[in-house]
Task: structure prediction
Amino acid sequence: MIRSKPVLFKSSLLATLASGCLAAAAVLAGAAGAQAQTLNTIKDRGQLVCGVSTGLTGFSISDDKGSWSGFDVDFCRALAAAIFNDTSKVKFVPLNASERFNELKAGKIDVLSRNSTWTMSRETEFGLNFTGVTYYDGQGFMLHKTTRSVESALDLGGAKICVQAGTTTQTNLADYFRANNLKYEEVKFTVLADLVKAYESGQCDVFTSDVSQLHSERANFAKPADHVILPDVISKEPLGPVVRQGDDGWLEIVKWTHFAMLNAEELGVASKNIDQALQSAKPDVKRLVGTDGNSGEQIGLTNDWAARIIRLVGNYGEVYDRNLGVGSKLGIPRGLNQLWNAGGIQYAPPIR
Ligand SMILES: N[C@@H](CCC(=O)N[C@@H](CS)C(=O)NCC(=O)O)C(=O)O
Result:
């Protein structure tokens, strides 16, 4: 009995330790399970659910057959290429500015890819993470050429300004006019189409939004040349995809999809030469296209994940040019969105 006590003690300690380890293991398994949740849900569903804008030429717009296109849409398609090797496996959910973050938070979409500005409070208040900056933008002003002769935003004192609710645009506008001691009349809309109608019919003098979105709207006006976009840019609008906090595995996939597209452009790998790239002996090209290393397996995909994106959607530059670039309907020069080694600030960490 006397000798058995320590034995008992020892075994109970072991049991305690063992159960502790099991508990820790269970916690770890739970965490890993939670991390893989979004990707598993997407795979089980057979489709990615992507939140986009309700309609913005060049970014996300659906045609009369319900087929979506645009820069933000292509990012969703790149994710579908990486996951399914099939860009059609995406359901697009159009969301206006006021509802987008709540819909993501509520789990109605897997990712938001919709000209959304990365701010601190959007992450902290809604429990979200921006995954990177796919488009560096800034807020500007557009006005009817005929109504006023204005050369700078500082000449806009007393103007009626159309703005969409639930945007950084609205708060920047207030800051800018307050900081410059100017008055303005805000004309606020929840639905973009209503705002555009109001501006076109002269209910307001000025339309303010991110500059890319002003280009987008102007391209659809009957006489685009009758509208001028002022040179002033009053804010930083880093636009990027957004996911819910708590699923790091999914965050990695969304983040590295953007970086893979940038790295592809930097390395000269494009949809038209992807087959040659798969034969390349260059180490960084091999790691990108998956002929070396196992980057895809590391994020729950196949090792050709980036090659699929490049083949089916293209590199960052191809996507930019097709939807927004000087050859497209919008004709927006690359500017800040040029690669870091070509005068811009798009800079992706390496895949290695
Ligand atoms: N980048 C700004 C503005 C984004 C935004 O929603 N802009 C409006 C005005 S052009 C828009 O895209 N509306 C489209 C829609 O509601 O579907 C933000 O994140 O708040």
About this structure: The two ends are 60 Å apart (CA to CA). Residues 53-54, 56, 96-97, 115-117, 164, 167-169, 192, 209-210, 213, 237, 239 surround glutathione (CB under 6 Å).
